[in-house]
Amino acid sequence: xxxxxxxxxxxxxxxxxxxxxxxxxxxxxxxxxxxxxxxxxxxxxxxxxxxxxxxxxxxxxxxxxxxxxxxxxxxxxxxxxxxxxxxxxxxxxxxxxxxxxxxxxxxxxxxxxxxxxxxxxxxxxxxxxxxxxxxxxxxxxxxxxxxxxxxxxxxxxxxxxxxxxxxxxxxxxxxxxxxxxxxxxxxxxxxxxxxxxxxxxxxxxxxxxxxxxxxxxxxxxxxxxxxxxxxxxxxxxxxxxxxxxxxxxxxxxxxxxxxxxxxxxxxxxxxxxxxxxxxxxxxxxxxxxxxxxxxxxxxxxxxxxxxxxxxxxxxxxxxxxxxxxxxxxxxxxxxxxxxxxxxxxxxxxxxxxxxxxxxxxxxxxxxxxxxxxxxxxxxxxxxxxxxxxxxxxxxxxxxxxxxxxxxxxxxxxxxxxxxxxxxxxxxxxxxxxxxxxxxxxxxxxxxxxxxxxxxxxxxxxxxxxxxxxxxxxxxxxxxxxxxxxxxxxxxxxx
Length: 494
Hints:
Blueprint (H helix, E strand, L loop, with lengths): L1 H5 L5 H15 L9 E3 L1 E24 L6 E6 L5 E2 L4 E5 L2 H94 L5 H91 L2 E3 L4 E2 L1 E2 L17 E2 L4 E18 L11 E6 L2 E13 L16 E8 L11 E18 L4 E3 L2 E8 L2 E6 L1 E5 L3 E6 L6 E3 L22
Antiparallel strand pairs: 1-20, 2-10, 2-14, 3-5, 3-9, 4-7, 5-6, 8-10, 10-13, 11-12, 11-14, 12-13, 14-19, 15-16, 16-17, 18-19
């Protein structure tokens, strides 16, 4: 057990704290006060150790299949070895009989719902036909208005504008003739200047009326008639679009009502089936063993005791687990791995198991399941904690053990062979370089090293040191290597 725990994988925060503590404790080392360490080569194991619970790989679970709550009136003693089809649990039948009667009432209600849905469909179809007829009539009226404008009103308005131009032009010509005559008479002294001015003003007014008539005709042709035409066209399009909407709305409502009818039919059928199921549940008040095995009562899942204890007189919920019958010939350990380490866990990894009831024995195992999502059963005291359910199957058969025993599991992440390692505190960082201090006859000689993998105590040295060299464990106080491969911004002491 001790050897197992010594191989526990590094938890980064704890390791960082360890290093800081060593830095503070070592102070500025020197050759006289140095703690020496001999560089050795050997095997190097990186692993994760976690506690868990022993479970059977294959286990038959017996549940309450009766709807609602059910009261146990008889229960086979826990620990009994039973044969297949032997009576395990007997429930009170009162609730099951009540459920049958309630289901009959529900069945009759669903029959009435189907009749209503069918009548609603008939009404919807009739209403839709009426709305469509009204919308079609609006389209016909809009079409007639457009044709009337194109064939009659537009031509009439153009002719009316042209007539105003002709009238204005004739009035202008007459005014010009009167003005010219007034000038001739004025030259001979037969007409006064005021009369000439008056006739001149009349020419100006008639000219303006003529220009206005022409402008009105131009605006009519260019704008007004186009606008009216566009309005009639738009009205026809809108009524046509409205007809399409009415048709689609009617089709949609009819489809909804048809779906309601189909749903009512299906619901009625399901209710009928449920009624038959309730009758079958009367038979389920007697629960029998699905296979030979050891009877183990289900335990409440909630820490608050919301789930009832399995005992005579207890009331249990629908689908509540009553009894489990495990196959103890094949066992596993279920553990929960913290999110910071779950990326290192893979199916097929080697593992070692030590049971609390057998502390002096170590069993081989293998990771057989790693949850994709974190455990939904959050820790009430730390709701942000995320852990992943992981299963380790034990090789072979363990005699004389039962499910529920606590266990320690060591999952091997990586095994390095024939590598140089030194204690973590022996490595320091100076000016971005990772150093170990060689104790060279009383003098401290810094050697630049390349580091690799690490666990809670040791770190791999890939180059820079040789086996059997003497290094110190308390190097001078300076920047230490951190376990992410980065270095701090602090400057090393002079």
